[in-house]
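pinned: reference chain
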Amino acid sequence: MMHLFLNCLAASAGSGLTYVRNVVPHLARRPELRATLALSPQLRKELGNAPNISFIEAEIPVGAAGRFCWEQTSLPRMIRSSGADVLLSAGNFALWRSPVPQILLSGNSLYTSVDFYSDLRARRAYRIWLDTRVRGFFARRSVCWADCTVAPSKAFADTLRLWTNGKVVSIYHGFDPTIFFRDHNPLPPEIQDKIDSGKDALRLIFVSHYNYYRNFETLLRAIPYIRERMGGRDVRLFLTCKLSSDEHSGTHHTEAAAELIQRLGIADQIVELGAVPYHLLHHLYRACHVYVTPAYAETFAHPLVEAMASGLPIVASDLPVHREVCGAAALYFPCFSPADLASQVAAIANAQELGREMANSGQKRSLDFSWARHVQELLTISREMTN
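pinned: its structure tokens
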């Protein structure tokens, strides 16, 4: 019986949480497999129990250097004590001297993004710039330390190979429609009321917490252009975050984005929903007409697959990853061009047949992503390492 040790301690938000929440149930369905997960106490509460999975709860230090040092000294003891055969490091950092063969799951494109470093300098966010450089150093070395590195897309795998000269393979992240669409409970009234307020508007949706690389400002600047190209039709952009400084927490400051909304006079068109529970997100997608993402750095982007499965056409920044994931389900625009973004949104809104064709293409494309297949491919690599 194979025994995997998963280091999930860095899974605290966004794609990291999505990954763990979806992979663990598939591990639990494999009685021929044992798994030990190192994770935070907060995440442990979400995952329930399974006879073949055990958990080690731990709190890690804040900051790249502190986390790196803690993992390098503490994790080897945990792995040896567990009796695991293979280590899966799921937080971009690998162990320097792993006691067992190691698979690194790498999923952060910011370390290699010229645009991100330029953006941070323009914002004078020097602390984040330095922290990202430090993390990038460890992440680059980690690819070399791991026996194999797994990237969630072919485009990002290519980037990692050029950056490190390490062994990198691509395994798509998955999507489970049964889990995603299973909750039929309605949205909370405060969210549903906000959606209903724009029932006659062109409804756009962007699912993301606020982060500089998500490029919110280009999307906000596109709103007046969209209204112009739509002949003045009302537009609503639904965000799953809050840009008000008194409600947002995090290292990426929202004040500039909030001020931009006021300066453009689009406050009535921007609907800040805040975080929507994952199990209810499908209601939000299906209440909208077009999914938009202006991100200038990405490795996979789970919301794209969720949007395609929900029947939404997509307008996405022209990144190799976005083209790889979406194909014909999206129209693309240069990352920092609000006018081109607006033109692509209008092209869909003004041509219903085009929107239907893109939606059909997206629903078919979403079937190509499977968490069961993802887990199976990881297990195949793990068995090859231990034979």
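why pinned: The CA atoms of residues 36 and 54 lie 5 Å apart. The domain at 2-174+370-386 is CATH 3.40.50.2000 (Rossmann fold).
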